[in-house]
Batch of 2 targets.
Target 1
Amino acid sequence: MIKLSYDINDYRKNLLGLVEDGDTVIELGCHVGGTTRLLADRCRVIALDNSPEAIGEMAKLDVEFISGDVRLHDVIANVFEITQSCDVLAIDLGGGYHPDTVFKVFYIWSSTFKPKHAAIRNRGLLEFVNSASVSGEDISSNEGYLESYHDSGIPPQIKEFDLWTSSLKK
Ligand SMILES: C[S@@+](CC[C@H](N)C(=O)[O-])C[C@H]1O[C@@H](n2cnc3c(N)ncnc32)[C@H](O)[C@@H]1O
């Protein structure tokens, strides 16, 4: 199941409703752990953020924290060394963050770790979904990733990020 929201309280409620005790959760955009705290005693949490503010605060929690940019191939590869799958993928890069980037991050991380469920916080994606008039074709997923692309494999490098986002260049 994929749950999409903008309000942070809805995001947390969605996420807590998806996780089960003992689950492995990958959390992208944990900031200082406001949501992580709600999961840490129930789940194995692998949390990521690229903000310097996150480092000290996340060290106080009993979770695996990685300081890095979740758009980068090396960062995904780093997590893939820790786990090859997860039960729940949570993505909050900031509610107003570019929806195209958030969708790409969702697509690449969910294709890689094949979560049962995903919770995403993003206003633009929610606006798109709520505004689109859709055809009657039965194309949907019961998983936390897109089943249509289940066998497509993982892009070896996220080349498109270099094409679209100049701030990504090292
Ligand atoms: C709204 S905050 C997350 C709040 C958190 N989910 C919570 O519930 O308290 C968004 C976070 O996403 C992080 N972020 C944005 N883009 C990122 C990226 N490309 N890689 C890693 N973290 C990113 C920011 O550093 C920020 O800490």
Target 2
Amino acid sequence: MNPIRKIVIVGGGTSGWMAAAMLSHHLKPGVCRIELVESTDIGTIGIGESTVPPFVGLIQRLGIDERDFMQATQATYKLGIQFVDWRQRRERYFHPFGVIGKRIGAHDFYQCWLKARQAGIATDLQDFSPCSVMAEKGRFYLPGEAQNTPIGGAGYAFHVDATLVARYLRRYAEGRGVSRVEGTVLGATRRENGFIDAVELADGRRVEGDFFIDCTGFRAFLIGQTLGAGFEDWSQFLPCDRAVAVKTSSGSPIPPYTRATAGKAGWSWSIPLQQRVGQGYVYASAFCSDQEARSTLLRSVEGKILDEPKVIPFVSGRRREIWRFNCLSLGLAAGFVEPLESTAIHLIARGMDFFLRYFPDRECDGALAREYNRRMAADYEEVRDFIVLHYCATGREDTQFWRWCRNMTLPDSLRERIELFQGHGALREGVDELFRSASWQSVFEGMGIRPLKHCPRVDNLELEQIASTLDMARQAIRGMVGNLPTHEEFLRSQSRPSW
Ligand SMILES: Cc1cc2nc3c(=O)[nH]c(=O)nc-3n(C[C@H](O)[C@H](O)[C@H](O)COP(=O)(O)OP(=O)(O)OC[C@H]3O[C@@H](n4cnc5c(N)ncnc54)[C@H](O)[C@@H]3O)c2cc1C
């Protein structure tokens, strides 16, 4: 046995401190030391505020008190994303978390609903999603405390202040023995076999380690600059490559969802926190200048602007090898799929989950890294396909950008998924637990892609039985949601007095 005795994390943004928190939770402090190097001169990206449900699961698995975390990070609840103007202007749809409907007998809910629609029964798919109905009414309740009720199948995530999350996880990790070094890494020394030996700081100090985790953001200092792992660029599918972001004062009521509004050359986000709102415009520089993007954002923001708008360039894509030699990359250093479905923080957690599953010794068996890279590539590609769907299915023709989106050449995997769905509503089995059938069905429906036929098996069920079950289910959800607290009332009930 040749166990890893020291892991060095370079970077102290969300990914660095998430890695430190997860490692310190899983590894015994006496057996493996964890050191995190961060540069206060460079700073963090400071955005990344909308999460997905597995993030709540991670907080729980780390043994963190959810209410304490929410209070410390100014968090609000998120039930999904409202998409405005995506298929056509003045149209909106909701992509909810959690389930949509329950099986009817042995039959898949979506297929039953489809049969009802095809028979002329006018029901909206989202009427059967507890999250969609709660979001529409501005209500919230924890589904875990309402199991076996019509909202028991809901899911939720958080909107958080990214800087406060990194601070919270730092406290958590330092409390479990992680040590922090302040300094800017300027170089790295390598062994004959290519492995990194140590990183060298601007003041001349060296930080040695057996294994390194590159969390240096878009700089990708170790995995890219030092080890030369190439980058697969997905701009041909995802043309947005810049964002301009600003913080604004809070409005009321606080919606329990993220809003993504399609614009002329991209889309804008609105992420409500307890005491402010994060807003931004993501755009394609081929179709829009920074100046135009800034004006677009400033024209559309609601509330008082609290800071200077900041432009952030990015490229969607992923490292060809996310793990190379004795270096793993996480977060923006590993890859980035533009932020429409708020997936980046989730991919950090997935990256760590897989690393813990394939945890190496000091020799870092190449087979482990190859399997890790294969699994992570599949996750990134699934997220990419899901996001491209939001663009390519648009019916908009009003700007050059949207015409480009309608006519782009799709990744084969997405083209096959669309063909499969258009036939009988079948879905390809995913690799990640993130975007399940309800997600794909919601976005397909919202973007106007409905299967031509339902699955013939549903013909074993009488239409009357389906119609009456749908009617009861819709009423049950609406009835219950009507009696729930508003999102703000619920947030207040969860907050602890500050004395
Ligand atoms: C426009 C936009 C919107 C986004 N929205 C979301 C969202 O809603 N939800 C979501 O999940 N994600 C979102 N993301 C992604 C999210 O911001 C990141 O995944 C997350 O913040 C993690 O970033 P990071 O820690 O990898 O990098 P960073 O925050 O950039 O941190 C890098 C760290 O490395 C350090 N560093 C860099 N170079 C060196 C060096 N040479 N020496 C020492 N230290 C160094 C820096 O000081 C810093 O501490 C968004 C991203 C963009 C661009």
